[in-house]
């Protein structure tokens, strides 16, 4: 039992409630897995498995109780290569009055153990979390990475480069096994060891499939996680920025496994985003982190967000984050994730242990402490603070378990395990009763441990693999196995320390489903030799023995790519957003309206047969015009662009408005505080010089998102559709878009017969009904798409399928199903979003002056079990409407309240309401000219907002490049960066662009375009707040 007093508590030690680990292994060689439980304080426990789920406590005679004051993680490992499992326990010492060191209990073979860490160089003293044994240098023996953790001090909150200065007791260490004695090689191996390293777990795996094992380290609080790629020379390269765009903020437990069957190991990291509405509103989350995020970024830290992250490994080069799409992002205060096939159906399932004794991030508790602490002496204050700990709310919460199917996870909590509050920390999977399925064991905080018996039994087939490797690594730690059955393969790698503070037994478990026939098993040993076993028997434990002289596995074949595109350095342009912050003006909005640039347009200005490029810019930076001679680009001197440096450029179009035979330029303006710079601009072309002309187009003050041209009234000149998106400072206001009718000489008037009030994001002219006249397709947010059929200059709205209100971003036409006609493809917000977490009904936005102060607010609400709750927290609502803080004096009083209880039903009825019924990107299927069916795209298209489609021809086949992502959301949503770019042939034929030579789209894609050069084509990728890229093909 962990007890609390004025010195020993979570105030003085932030990890006081983290609990202890659990380990499984056969310590007495009877083929039954035994169990070891860590006690933070008091005596550790060792239980011998007697069979039939009966256990005998041999802790006292085994002499494994330990002498350290505070124990944490445990690993069972044969440290001296005598064929007997030893036990390595991590400990915290040098903090408070904690004494001792990490302890190594050597198995004497007679049911007793002798502590001998010092003889092996494993008696680490410091703030230790858990150990991870692996052969990082391929010399045949097991080295160890020890994750350690900092505690809050004045020194641990500085710049990110603190990680470069090693701090004794705190920094992680890598110990190399030198003939049985462990030597610290952390510095020479490039392992960080700073005072800001809050290490809580690690995952060891060959993430990049090069045959050498890598390390992912989870750090709590502000410090970034670490991703160490093995350089194959005894050193590592930290590569987090190159491989990950989104990480957990309070990274806790982690695990690695190939969950989608592509042969690369994926990763999950846990955090503490609550699922329950009441807890969500009572505790601090990312909603309060906007200013902190900006501050940490200045200090050199990566953007981090407080939720679980499910990182899908894309060919070892980078990871795609999908936890929101898979609905595994919000499991509350979570510790140990474990990937395993619990129902033996061939797919990886996921177990997560949960719960904390008290929630230190309770907003009401923090407010109480802040106010009551004032005026007290520090010693008096700490004593008072300890006496106030009971005011922290309980953090008991159910463990969760998810069924996997290689595509998506389904929550089976309540079906597979009981849905009851727990305080479970360390956890493992293990087949305790040897019946062919994996049971679960949890080490619970101040409660008896739990064993969850798996009742799958004979309902599905399985195969277990054990290994006998070299004498210096007898269990074959680091071995991989590929099981081939029923036309599919499963990859697993043997590592013992997994999840949180815990270790599993040295066995790989494969579910086979209904199939009892195994084609073959390929085992890749730690030295990269491999063996193939043909048609082994199912429903058995196969012992695979290493034999010298095997063939070396060729990892290079996994890296072969079909390179079509080559990166070029034709245009040096990087878009940089200005520092305008929408959230400071409107504190309740979910995303910005001010970051829609840069504008981009193609057109042959100098009539040389090659399209030139206009690139608009953000406030304070001039637009540029790049002239194309077919071989390269040269910047054109345009004084008017410099004069208009204070405009924000969202969209642009080259179009001959005055019918003089050359291309003029229309630039759609974006957000700006000054009315002077909100209007769109029209520049007339005079021998290649562009001059702005006033009074030719209406001078509206809206944020314009798009401009497109077409002679829709067939009078011989180009008319314009102007798509308006928003009004700065009034997010929820629907604004007018219009058609400008050209009088033939470049003067425009609004078509009074066309009316559209919405939030337009994109528009295209396409001949939908193949009558030779182009029709108008428009995408909008908080509304449905619009299609207007052009009937000799009169636009008739076409009826679309119901329930299509969305957050639509872009549109194109493409023969997606390859049936010979073009479908209409729409880019929506995607499903990998917090909007999708509790999407039991439409997402709602209410727009009104709720507090009657003359300023309209936009309040979002989501549906959870038939009731609508405000998306924003009490603090956010109060910051915009002070009346909220008067009605709800603390967070608990508002937590769990519906939107009608917070805003009042009467106010909501008077407000204008808008809804989002679908977030899925997809297409309207063309069935003989009718578009009556909307079909969502596959999940790979749903990873982030789709903002650009480009059709191009590759190898005599029309293909589609798809891009997107969005960072303009507030910190509650994080950053949508998982859509790395797709190259599409058809609905079932696509791959990521990185497979063809294009760099993955880690940033926000504004537009993708293509133009012809003299001897090749050029693909151009335009990014918001990022560099423009060019690829020849």
TrEMBL record:
Task: Supply the SUPFAM superfamilies for this chain.
Answer: Integrin alpha N-terminal domain
Please tell me whether the keyword Signal is annotated for this protein.
Answer: yes
Keyword annotations of the record: Signal
Q: Domain named ASPIC/UnbV: which ranges?
A: 476-542
Give the InterPro entries listed for this entry.
Crtac1, FG-GAP, Integrin_alpha_N, UnbV_ASPIC
Q: Which residues cross the membrane?
A: none
Recorded hits in Pfam families, A to Z, give: FG-GAP_3 (PF13517), UnbV_ASPIC (PF07593)
Q: What is this protein called?
A: Fg-gap repeat protein
């Amino acid at each position: 039992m962990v007890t609390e007093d004025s010195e020993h508590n979570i105030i003085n030690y932030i990890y006081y409630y983290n609990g202890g680990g659990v380990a499984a292994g056969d310590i007495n060689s009877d083929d039954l897995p035994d169990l070891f439980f860590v006690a933070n304080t008091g005596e550790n426990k060792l239980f011998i498995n007697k069979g039939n789920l009966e256990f005998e406590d041999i802790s006292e005679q085994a002499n494994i109780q330990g002498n350290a004051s505070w124990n944490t993680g445990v690993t069972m490992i044969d440290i001296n290569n005598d064929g007997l499992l030893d036990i390595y326990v991590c400990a915290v010492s040098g903090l408070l009055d904690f004494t001792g060191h990490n302890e190594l209990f050597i198995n004497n073979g007679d049911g007793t153990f002798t502590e001998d860490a010092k003889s092996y160089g494993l008696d680490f003293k410091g703030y230790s979390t858990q150990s991870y044994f692996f052969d990082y240098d391929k010399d045949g023996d097991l080295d160890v990475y020890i994750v350690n953790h900092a505690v809050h001090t004045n020194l641990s909150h500085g710049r990110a480069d603190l990680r470069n200065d090693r701090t004794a007791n705190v920094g992680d260490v890598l110990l190399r096994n030198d003939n049985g004695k462990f030597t610290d090689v952390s510095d020479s191996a490039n392992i960080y060891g700073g005072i800001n390293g809050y290490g809580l777990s690690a995952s060891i795996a060959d993430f990049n499939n090069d045959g050498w094992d890598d390390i992912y380290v989870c750090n709590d609080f502000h410090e970034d996680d670490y991703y160490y790629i093995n350089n194959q020379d005894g050193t590592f390269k930290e590569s987090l920025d190159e491989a990950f765009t989104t990480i957990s903020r309070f990274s806790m437990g982690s695990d690695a496994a190939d969950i989608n069957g592509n042969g690369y190991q994926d990763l999950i990291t846990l955090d503490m985003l609550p699922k329950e509405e009441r807890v969500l509103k009572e505790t601090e989350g990312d909603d309060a982190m906007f200013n902190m995020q900006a501050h940490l970024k200045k200090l050199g830290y990566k953007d981090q967000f407080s939720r679980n992250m499910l990182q899908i490994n894309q060919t070892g080069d980078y990871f795609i984050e999908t936890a929101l799409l898979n609905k595994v992002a919000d499991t509350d205060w979570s510790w140990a994730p474990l990937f395993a096939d619990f129902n033996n159906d061939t797919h990886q399932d996921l177990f997560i242990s949960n719960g904390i004794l008290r929630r230190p991030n309770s907003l009401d508790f923090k407010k109480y402490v802040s106010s009551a602490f004032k005026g007290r002496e520090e010693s008096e204050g700490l004593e008072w603070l300890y006496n106030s700990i009971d005011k922290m709310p309980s953090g008991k919460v159910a463990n969760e378990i998810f069924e996997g199917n290689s595509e998506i996870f389904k929550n089976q909590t309540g079906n597979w395990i009981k849905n009851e509050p727990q305080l479970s920390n360390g956890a493992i999977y293990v087949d305790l009763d040897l019946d062919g399925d994996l049971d679960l064991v949890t080490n619970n905080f101040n409660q008896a441990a739990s064993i969850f018996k798996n009742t799958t039994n004979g309902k599905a087939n399985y195969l277990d693999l054990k290994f006998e490797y070299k004498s210096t690594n007898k269990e074959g730690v680091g071995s991989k196995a590929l099981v081939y059955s029923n036309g599919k393969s499963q990859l697993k790698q043997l590592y013992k320390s997994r999840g949180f503070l815990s270790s599993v037994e040295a066995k790989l478990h494969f579910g086979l489903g209904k199939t009892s026939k195994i084609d073959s098993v390929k085992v890749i040993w730690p030295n990269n030799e491999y063996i193939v076993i043909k048609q082994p028997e199912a429903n058995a434990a196969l012992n695979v023995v290493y034999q010298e002289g095997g063939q070396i596995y060729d990892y290079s074949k996994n890296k072969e790519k079909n390179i079509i595109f080559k990166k070029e350095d034709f245009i040096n342009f990087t878009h940089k957003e200005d520092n305008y912050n929408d959230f400071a003006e409107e504190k309740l909005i979910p995303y910005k309206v001010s970051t829609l640039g840069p504008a981009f347009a193609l057109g042959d200005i100098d009539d040389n047969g090659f399209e030139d490029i206009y690139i608009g810019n953000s406030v304070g930076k001039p637009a540029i015009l790049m002239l194309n001679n077919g071989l390269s680009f040269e910047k054109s001197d345009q004084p008017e662009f410099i004069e208009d440096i204070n405009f924000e450029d969202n969209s642009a179009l080259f179009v001959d408005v005055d019918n003089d035979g050359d291309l003029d330029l229309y630039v759609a303006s974006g957000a700006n505080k000054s009315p002077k710079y909100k209007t769109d601009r029209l520049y007339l072309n005079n021998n290649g010089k562009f001059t702005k002309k006033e009074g030719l187009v209406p001078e509206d003050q809206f944020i314009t998102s798009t401009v497109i041209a077409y002679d829709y009234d067939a009078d011989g000149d180009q008319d314009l559709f102007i798509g308006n998106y928003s009004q700065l400072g009034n997010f929820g206001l629907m604004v007018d878009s219009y058609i400008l009718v050209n009088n033939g000489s470049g003067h425009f008037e609004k078509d009074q017969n066309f009316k559209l009030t919405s939030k337009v994001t994109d528009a295209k002219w396409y001949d939908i009904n193949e009558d030779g006249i182009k029709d108008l397709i428009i995408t909008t947010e908080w509304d449905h798409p619009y299609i207007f059929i052009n009937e000799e200059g009169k636009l008739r709205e076409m009826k679309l399928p119901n329930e299509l209100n969305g957050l639509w971003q872009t549109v194109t036409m493409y023969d997606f199903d390859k049936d010979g006609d073009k479908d209409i493809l729409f880019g929506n917000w995607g499903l990998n979003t917090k909007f999708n977490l509790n999407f039991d009904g439409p997402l709602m936005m209410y727009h009104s002056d709720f507090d009657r102060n003359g300023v309209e607010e936009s309040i979002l609400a989501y549906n959870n079990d038939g009731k609508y709750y405000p998306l924003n927290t009490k603090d956010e609502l109060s910051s915009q409407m002070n009346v909220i803080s008067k009605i709800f004096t603390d967070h608990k009083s508002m937590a769990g309240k519906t939107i009608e209880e917070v805003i009042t039903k009467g106010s909501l009825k008077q407000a204008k309401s808008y809804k989002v019924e679908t977030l899925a990107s997809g297409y309207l299927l063309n069935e003989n000219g009718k578009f009556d069916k909307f079909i969502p795209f596959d999940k790979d298209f749903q990873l982030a907002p789709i903002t650009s489609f480009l059709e191009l021809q590759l190898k005599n086949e029309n293909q589609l490049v798809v891009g997107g992502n969005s960072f303009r959301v507030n910190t509650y949503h994080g950053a949508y960066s998982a859509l790395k770019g797709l190259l599409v042939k058809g609905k079932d034929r696509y791959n990521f662009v990185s497979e063809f030579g294009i760099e993955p789209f880690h940033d926000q894609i504004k537009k993708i375009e293509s133009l012809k050069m003299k001897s090749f084509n050029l693909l151009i990728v335009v990014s918001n707040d990022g560099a423009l890229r060019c690829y020849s093909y």
